[in-house]
Specification:
Helix 1 packs across helix 11. With 295 residues, this protein is mainly alpha-helical. 76% of the residues lie in helices and 3% in strands. It has one domain.
C-alpha cells in the first residue's frame, strides 16, 4: 500500500467516522437496530448536492442535510413507537422509501458537483494540496462530532437516552417518555449519517442514489473493530473507539485491496467478503483471548 493510499484510507475513515458515531448511538447506546442509515447517507448527499447546485452555501447545505437525516430517523422511530412496527422492519421500510425519495430530490440517479464550490475550497485556498486539505477538514469535523457526542451523552437528556437503551422500564417509572427519547436518539443518529453522506458527496464531486449500499455493515464493522482494539467501557471510550475503528477499518480495507500474491489479487468486488471476515475476526478474538487466559 502506497503512502497516498494510506492517507486516502485515513481520510475515508475520518469521513465515515461521523456515520459510525451515528451507528454507535443507535446500536450500542439506544439498543435500536436501525437500517435507515443505508438510505439516510445518500439522502444527506442528495440534499447537499442539490442545494449546492442551486447556489446554496456548502456549509449551509450540510445543515440542511443534517435536518433531512434527522427527519428520516424520526420517521423510523415514529413507525416503531406510534404504529408498533418492529424497529428492524420500520427501518427497512424507511430505507426502501428513501431510495425513491432520493431519486426525486436529485431528479435522477445522481448529481454532479464538478465546478461548484464545496467545503474543501476555502481550505484549499490557503495553498494546501487537496489531499491534505481534505484530511485536515475531515479530522476537525470528526473530532468535533466525537466531542459533541460525548458531551451530549453526559447531559441530563443524554443520560435519559442511555437509560432508555439500558433499562426502559426503569426510566419509564421515573416519568420519562421513552417514545420521545427514541425519536430523538434515532433522529440524531441519522442526522450524523446524513452529514457524513453530504461530506462524502462534496469530497467525491457527486451524489449517487446507490452510495449508501452496505453502509450499515461498514458502520457495524467499524464499531466492533474499535471495541476490539480499545475495549468496551464508558461513553468516552466507546465514542473514541467508534471513530478509531472507522479509521482502522478503512486502512484494513485499503491494505486488503492492495494485496497481491502471484496471479491472485483482491478486487473491489471482494469488499463485502473482506468486511465479513473482519467482523468475524473482531468478534472471535475476545473469545479466543478468554479461552487462552483460562488455560
Amino acid at each position: 500500500m502506497t503512502w497516498y493510499a494510506f492517507i486516502g484510507a485515513v481520510e475515508q475513515g475520518l469521513l465515515y467516522g461521523i456515520m459510525v458515531l451515528g451507528v454507535y448511538l443507535t446500536f450500542r447506546v439506544l439498543d435500536f437496530p436501525d437500517l435507515t442509515v443505508d438510505g439516510s447517507l445518500p439522502l444527506g448527499a442528495a440534499v447537499s448536492a442539490v442545494a449546492i447546485a442551486n447556489g446554496v452555501n456548502a456549509f449551509i447545505a450540510l445543515i440542511i442535510a443534517m435536518v433531512a437525516g434527522f427527519l428520516a430517523g424520526c420517521v423510523t422511530a415514529l413507525l416503531n413507537t406510534k404504529l408498533r412496527i418492529l424497529h428492524l422492519l420500520a427501518s427497512i421500510l424507511t430505507m426502501i422509501a428513501l431510495y425513491s425519495v432520493n431519486i426525486r430530490i436529485m431528479d435522477g440517479p445522481n448529481v454532479s458537483l464538478l465546478g461548484v464550490t464545496t467545503v474543501l475550497d476555502p481550505i484549499m485556498a490557503w495553498g494546501l494540496p487537496g489531499y491534505l486539505a481534505a484530511l485536515l477538514l475531515f479530522a476537525a469535523v470528526a473530532l468535533v462530532a466525537t466531542v459533541a457526542m460525548i458531551w451530549f451523552l453526559h447531559t441530563e437528556l443524554g443520560l435519559a437516552v442511555l437509560a432508555t437503551g439500558d433499562n426502559p422500564r426503569m426510566i419509564t417509572a421515573q416519568g420519562v417518555n421513552t417514545h420521545k427519547i427514541i425519536i430523538l436518539g434515532v433522529g440524531l443518529s441519522n442526522a450524523l449519517v446524513a452529514v457524513s453522506g453530504a461530506l462524502v458527496a462534496q469530497n467525491q464531486g457527486a451524489a449517487d442514489v446507490n452510495m449508501g449500499v452496505g453502509t450499515i455493515i461498514a458502520g457495524l464493522a467499524s464499531v466492533i473493530v474499535g471495541e476490539t482494539l480499545l475495549g468496551r467501557g464508558g461513553i468516552t471510550r466507546g465514542c473514541i473507539a467508534a471513530l478509531c475503528g472507522s479509521v482502522v477499518y478503512r486502512v484494513a480495507i485499503a491494505a486488503a485491496l492492495s494485496f497481491k500474491m502471484g496471479r491472485f489479487a483482491v478486487t473491489p468486488s471482494d469488499l463485502n467478503l473482506i468486511t465479513a471476515l473482519l467482523v468475524v475476526l473482531a468478534l472471535t478474538v475476545p473469545t479466543i483471548k478468554a479461552r487462552w487466559s483460562r488455560r
